[in-house]
Write a structure and sequence with these properties.
- The chain is mainly alpha-helical.
- It has a domain of about 80 residues.
- Helix 2 runs antiparallel to helix 3.
- The radius of gyration is 28 Å and the shape is extended.
Length: about 150
């Protein structure tokens, strides 16, 4: 039993404290790196082009698999319609519509990825607006309530 002024710690409390200290220390290092690095994160143009090409290849693979899934959904819908299975037709139609939406989204994403100047590293960044006099309230006061 602990006397007055003595503290007893078990191994889990020590481990928890150690994890918290490491987390706080790593956050401090990360924030210092973020604040001190101009244009962070920065990659070379060649590396960014490689990443963009890899991204387009992945998107094209997903496009091919969605096209196949759409064809399977259309086949299933036709089979269910031939069997007079209304719930099956509705289910297959929903799947077909979902695959069609996915295809449209993938095509749009591929278009954006292959457009001239589409790389996030080459896009012009908009400046962050300066804080106004109205925003001179405490950060926790989301609604600007009077004191």
């Amino acid at each position: 039993m602990a006397r007055d002024g003595e503290m007893r710690c078990d191994a889990s409390a020590v481990a928890r404290t150690r994890r918290v200290v490491l987390l706080v220390a790593s956050l401090g290092v990360a924030s210092a790196a973020w604040a001190g690095a101009e244009g962070f994160p920065a990659v070379s143009a060649a590396e960014q082009a490689e990443r963009d090409a890899r991204r387009v290849a992945i998107l094209q693979g997903e496009l091919a698999s969605e096209t196949a899934a759409l064809a399977r959904a259309e086949t299933r819908r036709a089979e269910r319609a031939a069997a007079n299975d209304l719930p099956g037709v509705l289910e297959a139609e929903q799947a077909r519509e979902e695959h069609a939406r996915n295809l449209a989204a993938l095509r749009a994403e591929i278009e954006r990825a292959t457009a001239k100047g589409a790389s996030p590293a080459t896009r012009e960044r908009r400046p962050v607006p300066a804080a106004s006099a109205k925003s001179a309230r405490p950060w926790w006061d989301a609604y600007g309530s009077p004191p």
